[in-house]
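Q: My collaborator sent me two sequences in one message, no labels, and asked for predicted structures for both. Can we handle them in order? The first one she listed is below.
A: Yes, handling them in the order given. First sequence, followed by its structure tokens:
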Amino acid sequence: MSGRRLELRGMQDSLEASEAQRRQIEAEMASIRNDRGKLEAALLDMTRSVGATEAKVGEAEGRLDALLGSEDAIRRSLTSRRSVIAEVLAALQRMGRKPPPALLVAPEDMLQAIRTSMLLGSVLPEMRAETEALAADLSDLLQLRQSIAAERDALSGDAAKLRADRQHLAALIEARQSALSAAEQALGAERDRALDLAKQAATLKDLIARMESEVAAAARGAEAARRADEARKNAQEATPPDARRKTALAPFKDPARLAPATVFAETKGLLPLPVAGTLQRGFGAPDSFGGAEKGMLIATRTEAIVASPCDGWVAFAGPYRSYGQLLIVNAGQGYYIILAGMDRINVNVGQFILAGEPVAVMGDGSAKTAAAIAIGAAQPILYIEFRKDGAAIDPGPWWAKPELQKVRG
């Protein structure tokens, strides 16, 4: 009964902590809901925190798998030598219980003892080696178990932080979208129109063209991108070269910006990867159909947060053929970023999004996209493609170098 009470008390404490956290998040939302700059800054910070924790959890899981593999190897080694160890221990026990016979009283017994000693002497070096190996293995096994326990404790703490951060991020995303979705009925009609176009469009190029000509929100985004390109061009002509270089080196500094701070072509080597994971196939690698890969495939954690790699306007958001959930971002100057394979998207067509801003969530890998099937992946796969004037280009030069090293695992 006392155990049951302790269990119920633990559940109550957990619920109280969750309720306190919820109230704290609601208070924060109330304070920043009407301040777009603060809301975007909080979104970017929390997305970075979630991404870092996801990467940390993935690394801890990798270390734990390696430790468990080492433990299994030592266990198998000990099991394989069990018969030899048993024979050695039995021989030592017999020697301890039966002292050597007297030389003159029973010479035949002494002869047998000598012969046994000679035989045992030939075994002793091997026995010593086996004993030393056994002691080393047992010591390693003890240290491994301690390391496994420590990794599990750390992993449990990181997993709890990840859950809390994801809850916080979900509240921030809801606050962002509610502030943007005043005309929800019109938005719903445009979403239905976008889904109809997705069924009709045979290619991504066709889908983009149809969206930006037949869906008002996408058309507004395309027009905003065109105006931003023109305004930036005029501003650059009037800006000294030193000031232009300074802006190009810090294009994502202002979280309240409503247009890209610099042209997409000048962000090479600066873009953050949209998700933490392991690179499975890169641009230009042989695909499964006799051609070359037009994008890159990254294996992610279950329910990993996907962030936009760049500033831009959402040209399409929704399911499309074998791509799964598809997001297309108009980055300006004829550049488009394509993200596919997510479980759900949390931005709307026509919406301006920032580099590093959360835009989607991965699934658990059960819904198979063409990209996942092509490489036989069991885990979720994010497909990333960059396009310039309708043609696929290598995204490699755009990624920040440390980020690219991380994604390679």
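Q: And the one she listed second?
A: Here it is, processed independently of the first:
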Amino acid sequence: MNIIVKDLYFYYKEGEDVLKGINLEFDDRCTAIIGQNGAGKTTFVKLLKGLLKPKKGDIFIKGLNTKETTVAKLASIIGLVFQNPNDQIFKNKVLDEVMFGPLNIGQDKNLAFENAKKALELVALLQKADENPYDLTLSERKLISIASILAMDTDIIILDEPTIAQDFISREKIKNIIKKLKEEGKLVITITHDMDFVAENFERTIVFNQGQVLLDGPTKEVFSKEDILKTAHLEPPYITQLFKRLGFSETVLNLEEALNYKIL
């Protein structure tokens, strides 16, 4: 397993648990973590990254206990793309920004340069390599943040709200990146409020509610449990809701499934 979480508890203020009794295992399946604001999603991924330490329980990343491992050591294994790129970007040149992570985890300059170029090609922004990131649009800065993590070539990539401020073209870029990472055998985790994006790209979905796991399973199965989702103030993707209202019993996740749906 890539990640094993055992009986995890965490609080910022004693007596007010943000996460309580989390037990999860992550394999190579692309996994979405969903839930309302305050459900504990962001805190959970910060714990995975080692930015926070469990108050009780353990998290093992590729066999390493995060309690006993430095953030620097974990950085070569697990990469986190922040929700707000302005919290991540600090260099004055796009190429320098994308090279920073690889250099920081010990890649030599030539390898870091090549990996940065490949990552910028993947997000279709190589032509902006010499520009200042803050001269780019918010959408482009988000893609630069993604490229910065891709260039580090970590086995695990966490995307925090990847579709915020993204137009259709940029969403398709991110979709293709996730597909490529999956083909390379990497674990991609996202935390998001975008249910349609989840349905299109993620095989497994975990629902957090009030600091606990409410649902966990194949995405189609999770989105079929509309009544349970309502308790977490969540709704299935729009196309799933449409097919239900039309009276179809099968859960349809996305446009491709809808187009291939056979009406007897």
